[in-house]
Design brief:
The protein is of the alpha/beta class and about 300 residues long. About 35% of the residues lie in helices and about 25% in strands. Strands 1, 4, 5, 6, 9, 10, 11, 12, 13 and 14 form a ten-stranded mixed beta sheet that branches. Strands 3-2-7-8 form a four-stranded mixed beta sheet. The two termini are about 30 Å apart.
Amino acid sequence: MIYTVTLNPAIDYVVQLEGDLQPGGLNRSAGEDYQFGGKGVNVSNVLKTLGYDTVALGFVAGFLGDGLERGLRDMGLTTRFLHVARGMTRINVKIKAGEETELNGSGPVITEGDMAQLFAQLDALLPGDTLVLSGSIPKCLPADTYERILARLEGRGVQTVVDAAGELLFNVLPYRPFLIKPNRQELEELFCRELHSDEDIAACAEALQRQGARNVLVSLAGDGALLLDENGGCRRMACPKGTVRNSVGAGDSMVAGFLAGWLETGDYDRALRLGVAAGSATAFSLGLAGRAEIMRLLETL
């Protein structure tokens, strides 16, 4: 079974404007939508689209948390969210105009007691299961939260995927995650240098492998992706052609596509192709891409 962890899921309120955002003035919506978000939730959603069931774990609070959980279940996702006492599940406002503008809420207060319940859920994972940890952690949690999770699972045969930035990513490498997915900017920030070429990117990815990551998938936005696999292969794939309409969830879709391709075939080339197709399909859509869009782009790669 695949499990995703979203420590701070959200309801995304997506607003489309006809023109540019006017700060300090009246802005009228030309279209709007609600999406149930959070990086791990997005991974679960796209994996479901590609035919793989998951269990979504994390924390929710208040009536917004109830609505998010009910909405995900209505979409066919299995959730085992923990309900916490303080605060409220967040609403993130995504404004689609000449430029994308985001206003993200803070979310509920998660205590050590709440984390103990999550650890108890993770203790039930079995050899062969996959666990996906995605995104930043709430300010109310200690910076070593992901480390503690991977340390708890060490030696139990659980395949782990981490999509995070900075020290949050770097500090889990000794636990040999199956896959990490930094983007170019995150690599530049981690290594304190600009990356101008594929060779630069591959060198940084190789350094992360030496620290313990088995496979390093670097998302490069409109330039596609680069993969260093655990067998010594280095693969570079460009994006298919299309009009970018949305950046939210594209990286999560790439993670989901990569996992689906790998689970289907055990082949890293197939995994990379499906990952790039899924990430691109979401970037070309207003929300998370559907199966038809993903498969259509896959045929072009």
